[in-house]
Write a structure and sequence with these properties.
alpha/beta; Beta-Lactamase; Heat Shock Protein 90; five-stranded antiparallel β-sheet; five-stranded mixed β-sheet
Length: 500
């Protein structure tokens, strides 16, 4: 008859057996020779092998891939050598593919204190690790978004101030160019204007990245679009090919997407340099019909592997004189279209840029562009009220307008503009958006509420044209981005006069 101690021992054995045989965890006991002497049913289910084929064998004898078995066997040796418990993570094969397991390896001792067995308890933590990875990815995206918000504020303020500086430089450089006669002076003024154009391009790129515009979507026939937009893009020493399979169609912003691909083609051309090379632009619909894939490949030197991980990072560039924003902006634009952009080196030579965009089953043809009817040359306004707080900008623009026989009254802020309008009747307004006391759009609403509606040209270093449609006026309006050339301003004033 069993003693109470024997009954308790048997009961504990039964409880232990019930636990290890019903748990989803993998439980195995290993000898000092690293052979299994026990496995629970979960291991049988995972491997598809019966108990008799699993015990008495090492992991290697079970044809375990060395990538899986080697780290586990080394950990077992360490436990036997140090008599210390160890926890590790390892990949294990399963019918569903590789899974991530956490292994707890516990030494089991004899009565004399020697390690006789090692008990390995393995738990599938694949889902946990994937959730953690997703959490880290979302955290990085949130941090990136917060950085962009801060960058957007800085970019907005910087664009305005920097473009005001450029506007002052542009106006006086044009005065020199118009009045100078010495070739050296004319060349210097021309070079200054070229630098102004480059400076404006930099601020535009910075603003586009920091405050991306939502796509103005419309149906796009990819074949027609690519052939019309990119037929003559590269110099003679670079062969350019376009290949479109089938009739892929997307729904997107043609201007934004054209700019993205144009920048990628320019990068490809610059990568080839002065060597003879080729650039290939290809498009097709994916096999399942859900994506339109557009690739640009070149046979230049390819991307340095050390730079590849940073190519979408703002301000990172390997090009002399580059801003490091081109690919970052392209990545943003494609993401706003619900697509993906990737860059990789070709197997042989060169680079491939791949764009994947959602495909549409059908798309309407683009409406034919209509040309405005020819009209007689309009008469420019003879009297203008110019609302501008920056002294250098005001002085340069006024001097150029007066050279064109246009009389200009200047107001330094919104309050002064309203006072001047009480006894001065201009034929048009030129208003800076960012004034010390008013937003230029709000000032114009106040003007139209108190005086006869006047044609207006708005100017700003960073504002967009989205507000124009909400202005409370029947008069024609235009928007110019600083720095603008005097001819651009004159053309805007002539257009207002024609409409008015």
């Amino acid at each position: 008859m069993e003693t109470s101690a024997e009954q308790e021992l048997r009961r504990r054995d039964e409880v232990f057996k019930a636990l290890v045989e019903n748990t989803p965890d993998l439980i195995a006991r290993f000898t000092r020779e690293l052979r299994r002497c026990y496995v629970n049913p979960a291991i049988e289910r995972l491997t598809g092998l019966p108990y008799s084929e699993l015990v008495g064998k090492t992991l290697g004898e079970l044809n375990f891939d060395a990538r899986f078995s080697a780290p586990i066997e080394q950990a077992l040796r360490d436990v036997f050598a140090t008599a210390t418990e160890r926890t590790m993570e390892a990949f294990l094969p399963s019918p569903a593919g590789e899974r991530i397991y956490q292994l707890r390896i516990v030494p089991e001792f004899t009565r004399t204190g020697e390690v006789e067995f090692a008990l390995v308890i393995s738990r599938d933590i694949t889902t946990i690790r994937h959730e953690e990875a997703e959490h880290r990815r979302l955290q990085r995206e949130l941090e990136h978004a917060n950085q962009l918000i801060g960058l957007g504020r800085v970019a907005s303020a910087m664009s305005h101030e920097f473009n005001n500086v450029l506007m002052g430089i542009q106006s006086f450089a044009e005065i020199v160019l118009r009045s100078g006669h010495e070739p050296r002076v004319l060349d210097a003024a021309s070079r200054i204007l070229q630098s102004v154009v480059r400076g404006r391009a930099i601020t535009e790129e910075l603003r586009a990245f920091a405050r991306p515009q939502a796509p103005a979507r419309s149906p796009i026939d990819v074949r027609s679009w690519l052939y019309e937009a990119f037929l003559n893009e590269l110099p003679d020493h670079v062969t350019f090919e376009i290949e479109v399979e089938g009739t892929p169609k997307i729904h997107g912003d043609p201007l934004q997407l054209t700019q993205v691909i144009a920048n990628i083609i320019v990068n490809a051309r610059e990568a080839i340099g002065g060597e003879i090379g080729s650039v290939r632009l290809r498009a097709n619909t994916s096999a399942d019909g859900t994506l339109v894939e557009i690739t640009v490949t070149d046979d230049g030197p390819g991307i340095d592997p050390r730079a590849r991980a940073r190519i979408f990072e703002p301000f990172f560039t390997t090009k002399e004189g580059g801003t490091g924003l081109g690919l970052a902006i392209a990545h943003q634009v494609i993401a706003l279209h619900g697509g993906q952009l990737s860059v990789e080196n070709n197997a042989s030579r060169g680079t491939m840029v791949r764009i994947a965009l959602p495909s549409t089953a059908s798309a309407d043809e683009h409406p034919s562009a209509t040309r405005p009817a020819a009209t007689a040359a309009p008469r420019r306004p003879e009297r203008i009220l110019f609302v501008e707080d920056d002294e250098a900008v005001a002085a340069g623009v006024i001097a150029l307008l007066e050279d064109e026989h246009i009389f200009v009254r200047r107001a330094r802020d919104g309050a002064e503009a309203l006072r001047i309008l009480r006894d001065y009747q201009p034929q048009a307004l030129l208003i800076d958006i960012n004034l010390p006391d008013w937003n230029g759009f709000d000032l114009y609403d106040e003007v139209t509420a108190s005086f006869e509606p006047l044609p207006v040209v708005f100017a700003s270093g960073h504002a967009d044209a989205g507000r124009l449609g909400s202005l409370k006026t029947s008069a024609p309006v235009r928007m110019l981005k600083k720095p603008y050339a005097i001819d651009t301003l004159l053309e805007a004033l002539e257009t207002l006069a024609a409409v008015g």
